[in-house]
Amino acid sequence: MLVQWLMIFVIVFIFYEYFCTGNPNNSYLYHMKPQLIISNTAELIRLRSEDIISIEADGNYSTLYVVGTEKRVVLFQLGQLERMISEQLGEEALAFVRIGRSLIINRNYIYYINLNRQILIMREPGGHRHETLKVSHESLKKLKDLIEGKEYK
Amino acid sequence: MEKELFDIKDTDIRVLVPIKNGPDNPKPRRRRWLWILLALAILCVLAGARVYYLLHQTVIYSSDDTEYTDSVGNKGIVSYMATHDYPAYTQFSDVSVNDIKLIIYTPIGCHAELLVGPLPYNDRNIILAAQAADYRADNGQISGAFVYKGELLSRGHPKYGFCAIIGDSLIMGKSQETVLFERAVEREGYFFRQFSLIHNSKPGEKLPKGKAVRRALCYYQDRISVIETEGRESMHDFTQALMDMGVQEAISIVGSVSLPLYVDASGKRHIIKSANSENIQETYIVWKK
Contact at 8 Å (CB) between B71 and B52? Predict the structure, then answer.
């Protein structure tokens, strides 16, 4: 009996941090990969980091471009979503880049950058859908440097 | 501190970094107590706000026809839609004010809701139907915020007048921000925006010029009515006529030949169709029995 309690204690001790930090709702059923939960009183959206292509600000709302779905409007400001990503996705948050005041992108889906035309094209996995975004020259230059592994100024 | 952390210029980029709130960064016990006290204080404030909200909500939904003031101080008119006056029909009358002939449609014994799409002319439950929000010519989207059964179909507020339908209440008013928008989303209600013609018996917002057949959703003689001009009138003259006849609250709705259906007291259905009106995508406010 004592050994059983000791084993349980050891397992809980080992995985305590992992359960608490890897998963936003502290449920071990979902501990395999952190997920972003966007929730208000009326609805809940649950997404993995690879589901999100980009997020665009629109005043008090934000538009989520999700893999396999057209888009979804949520009643949160971009800054609030940025915080949710940082808090809930753990290391997966590093995949996301905030560009200026109105855009967050998943850099894994960057397909094409053109500084002269000031466009950034995001591509869905499998190449089924492209999303063309208008971004300032300066921001695009910094993004390009980041992707190339250069220090951006 | 948080503001600094999340501030960004338009020309900047930054890679998002994880924020750990977990036990990795243990804090001294004293500070933890401070956080607990702060959390309790916030909880008390939130509980107080919730109590205030619930008390306030009771005022709105317990009365039949009354004035309403929401939590941010916006005033409007609440009309409780009683459905016990059977049979349901549209009371039809006309009146001349300032040489302007006005036709008044008052739904009796009905409840209101919004519709999007072609009007189902064969739906026998519809007692009165009128077009509600405008469609924008530039992008084909609904103009202003529009909520349909709790679903946000359009956003923005280029016009100050609003109409919210939540449960059995139809609420009209004028404000740039109103909690009724959020409530319509939360409670599977309806919400749309239009020009405010009259607010608290005073002129509403600055109105567009030009003459056309005008139509408005009005709070008149303790009931919600749709009032339209027989001829082409300016928005200003229409508003003045409504004020002179004693309308307390009014928002414009789509004018011209856009009142497509009403059922009179004898049960006769009056249908006004244009050539392709069965296929046109529009927004309607309909009263059903």
Answer: yes
Q: Are B46 and B53 in contact (CB under 8 A)?
A: no
Query: What ipTM score was computed for the predicted complex, to two decimals?
Result: 0.73
Nearest CB to B150; choose among A42, A101, A136:
A42
B94 to each of A138, B97, B105, B211, B244, how far by Cα in Å?
A: 64, 10, 9, 20, 15
Most confident of B44-48, B65-69, B112-116, B203-207: B112-116
Give kind and range of the element (H or E) at residue B146.
Answer: strand B146-148
Rg (CA), chain A: 19
In a domain, B51, yes or no: no
Q: What is the DSSP letter of A143?
A: H
Place of tokens 């519709």: B115
Which CATH number is correct for A34-148, 2.40.50.1020, 2.70.98.10, 3.40.50.300, 3.40.50.1820? Answer: 2.40.50.1020
Chain-chain contact of B20 with A21 (C-beta, under 8 angstroms): yes
CA A146/CA A113 separation, integer angstroms: 12
pTM: 0.50
Residue B158 contacts residue B208 (beta carbons within 8 Å): no
Q: What is the mean predicted confidence (pLDDT) over B89-98?
A: 90
CA distance B32 to chain A (A): 18
pLDDT at B243 (0 to 100): 93
- In angstroms, the separation between the Cα of residue B4 and the nearest Cα of chain A is 12
Considering only alpha carbons, which residue of chain A is nearest residue B6? Answer: A79
Residue B229 lies inside a defined structural domain of this protein: yes
d(CA A147, CA A124): 18
Q: Is residue B11 part of a domain?
A: no
The residue ranges of every structural domain in chain A are 1-32, 34-148
Element (H, E) at B271: strand B269-271
How far apart CA A122 and CA A110 sit, in angstroms, is 5
Taking CA B8 as the corner, what is the angle to CA B5 and CA B14, rounded to the nearest 5 degrees? 80
Reference A106, options A150, A54, A45; nearest CA is A54
Partners of A96 on chain B (C-beta within 8 Å) are: 15-16
Partners of B9 on chain A (C-beta within 8 Å) are: 100-101
Identify which of B237, B277, B238 has the alpha carbon closest to the alpha carbon of residue B257. Answer: B277
CA distance B147 to B82: 23
Could you give the CA distance from residue B275 to residue B83 in angstroms, rounded to a whole number?
34
Number of domains in chain B: 1
Asked if B10 and A85 come within 8 Å (Cβ–Cβ), the reply is: no
